[in-house]
Structures are given as structure tokens and as C-alpha cells.
């Protein structure tokens, strides 16, 4: 039997209760992935994502969507969730780490508490998640053996693939975001390092660096929204917000075997934002 999907197996998406994570979970399901683990702090958001997936894909498939409440800033919570995913699905083929928060403020106006909260989710939390994913992936067989029906060529086979969501602000600066930028730069650096360390075990690790995307994160209050519309969006060559699904599609591509020679990379998905910094 020929596979109908480029993403056979089990996909985990952290931060899938909202925005880019939700869109990524939907994109995996629409690409034919039938086993999805949805992680977030926000259980109501996860339930909505599950409903949206079931609506989009229909009930006549072998779709299995499981919700795991998880606080990525808490190591025990992360271990519990990833252990739960392994127990539920036996494998973990793709992990996309989207959970994130943003607190604005110049360094001299920023509290240590907010600095720590930012790092504990965006950098330390991402590393905790990625470490658990790597532990599971290292211990499992190649996907060409696990899913023979997918007819994955041995050269392109993988044991697993991780996509970490960083940000364009890992590469360039914007006013009022030192703690966020630092955490996202850390996420990119961890990605490169893990990409190198696990290449020989056939685990790929990549990062996506979104530009300015229309999500609840970019809608915190009317004043900030207005600032975003008139500053970063206007210095984006495409002069618009990206859509969560435009980030999601790149995540699904990078996760799957079609991206089999891509590892340790940071992909900008930003309407030309980074390319056009001298704009
Ligand atoms: N929206 C943008 O313009 C933009 C740009 C660049 C990068 N990003 C990054 O993309 C990712 C997704 O952002 P989004 O725009 O979808 O925002 P969002 O606010 O819509 O989604 C973030 C999700 O992360 C979850 N989350 C927050 N703290 C958590 C925790 N401790 N444990 C588990 N889950 C937690 C939230 O509950 C939420 O569901 C984030 O990492 C963000 O930094 C967003």
C-alpha cells in the first residue's frame, strides 16, 4: 500500500492551545498525520484545537488526538507529558515546540521576575521539551522500519525530527524586547547544537524564525497592536502580518522526510523581514 501522507506517525505540538501551535496541529492533521499529542497550559484552548482538527479531518479516519496539560516551565510537568505521549502512542516522530510568551520592556524597566518567566518558557522550557523529545527519539527505530507502508527511502529515513519555534528577534533587535530576544536567540543556539549532536543518530533538529504573525500574541491590547501595525509590519517587505498557517506549513515540511537533508538550520518565515532589514 502506498502512503497517503508525508508525515506518517506521531506528532507532538507544544503551545497548541492557540495561534501558531494550533495551526501547526491542524496542518499535521490535514497533511494526513493521524496521531497527534497536543500540549499546552491552557486546557480549554487544547479542547478547541482538538474540535477544530476533528471538524477539519472528519470522523471516518483513524485519527487519534490526545490532550496533555503541560507547563513547559516546570520540569516535572514536561517529563509527565512526554512520558504520557510515549505511553499513549509508543513513539514520537515529530515534535514542534511552539509554547511561548512575550513580555515587553526595556532592561532598566524590566523585573527579574519577568525576565525569569520569559526564559523559563521560551528558552529553558523549550530545552526541557526538546531534551525529552530527543530521549524518546533516540530509543526508537527508524521511520522506514516503523512505517514500511510509507515507503521511505533508507537514505532519507529518520528516527525523529524536532522543530523549535524561535523568532526573527533572535537575529535582529526591536525596541522593548531584550529578554524575549535573548530567549529566542538561546532557542536558536540550542537548535543548532542539538542538530549537530544528534545528526549521526538520524534525528533532525531545526528552528523556524517567524516574523510578525497575526495571533493572540500580537493582539495583547489596542496600543501594542497599533505599534506593531505601524512599525514591524511596515518594515516587512510584504507589508502584512503572516498567518499562523503560513508558519505551520513550514513546520510540517521541516518535520517530515521531504526535508531529510536539513538540520541545525534556522528558517525565516517572515515576509522578507530579515532579508529587508536595510529597507
Ligand atoms: N506571533 C508572532 O508574531 C510571533 C513571532 C515570532 C515568534 N513567535 C513565537 O511563536 C510561538 C507561538 O506564538 P503564538 O503567536 O502562536 O502565540 P499564542 O499566544 O497564540 O500561543 C502561545 C501558546 O503557548 C502557550 N503557553 C504559554 N506558556 C506556556 C507554558 N508555560 N506551558 C505550556 N504552554 C504555554 C499558551 O497557552 C498559548 O497557547 C511562540 O513561541 C512565540 O514566541 C510568535
TrEMBL record:
Q: Does the keyword NAD apply?
A: no
Residue spans making up a coiled coil are: none
Please give the superkingdom of this protein's source. Answer: Eukaryota
Q: Which GO terms describe its molecular function?
A: oxidoreductase activity, acting on the CH-OH group of donors, NAD or NADP as acceptor
Keyword NADP found: yes
Entry keywords, A to Z: NADP
**Listed InterPro entries:** NAD(P)-bd_dom_sf, SDR_fam
What CDD domains is this protein classified in?
SDR_c
Tell me one Pfam family matched here: adh_short
- Family designation: Belongs to the short-chain dehydrogenases/reductases (SDR) family.
The protein's name: 3-oxoacyl-[acyl-carrier protein] reductase
- Which organism does this sequence originate in? Cladophialophora psammophila CBS 110553
Its lineage opens with: Eukaryota, Fungi, Dikarya, Ascomycota, Pezizomycotina
Amino acid at each position: 500500500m502506498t502512503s497517503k501522507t508525508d508525515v506518517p506517525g506521531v506528532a507532538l505540538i507544544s503551545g497548541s492551545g492557540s495561534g501558531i501551535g494550533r495551526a501547526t496541529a491542524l496542518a499535521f492533521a490535514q497533511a494526513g498525520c493521524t496521531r497527534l499529542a497536543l500540549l499546552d497550559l491552557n486546557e480549554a484552548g487544547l479542547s478547541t484545537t482538538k474540535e477544530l482538527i476533528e471538524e477539519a479531518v472528519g470522523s471516518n479516519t483513524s485519527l487519534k488526538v490526545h490532550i496533555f496539560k503541560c507547563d513547559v516551565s516546570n520540569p516535572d510537568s514536561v517529563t509527565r507529558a512526554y512520558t504520557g505521549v510515549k505511553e499513549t502512542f509508543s513513539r514520537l516522530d515529530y515534535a514542534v515546540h511552539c509554547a511561548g510568551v512575550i513580555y515587553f520592556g526595556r532592561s532598566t524597566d524590566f523585573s527579574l521576575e519577568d525576565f525569569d518567566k520569559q526564559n523559563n518558557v521560551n528558552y529553558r522550557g523549550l530545552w526541557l521539551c526538546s531534551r525529552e523529545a530527543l530521549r524518546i527519539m533516540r530509543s526508537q527505530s527508524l521511520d522506514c522500519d516503523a512505517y514500511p507502508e510509507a515507503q521511505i527511502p533508507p537514505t532519507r529515513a529518520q528516527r525523529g525530527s524536532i522543530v523549535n519555534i524561535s523568532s526573527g528577534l533572535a537575529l535582529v533587535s526591536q525596541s522593548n524586547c531584550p529578554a524575549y530576544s535573548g530567549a529566542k536567540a538561546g532557542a536558536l543556539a540550542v537548535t543548532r547544537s542539538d542538530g549537530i549532536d544528534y545528526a549521526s543518530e538520524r534525528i533532525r533538529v531545526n528552528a523556524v524564525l517567524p516574523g510578525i504573525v497575526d495571533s493572540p500574541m500580537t493582539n495583547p491590547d489596542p496600543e501594542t497592536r497599533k505599534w506593531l501595525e505601524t512599525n514591524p509590519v511596515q518594515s516587512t517587505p510584504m507589508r502584512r502580518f503572516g498567518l499562523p498557517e503560513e508558519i505551520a506549513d513550514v513546520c510540517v515540511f521541516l518535520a517530515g522526510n521531504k526535508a531529510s537533508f536539513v538540520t541545525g538550520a534556522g528558517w525565516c518565515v517572515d515576509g522578507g523581514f530579515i532579508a529587508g532589514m536595510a529597507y
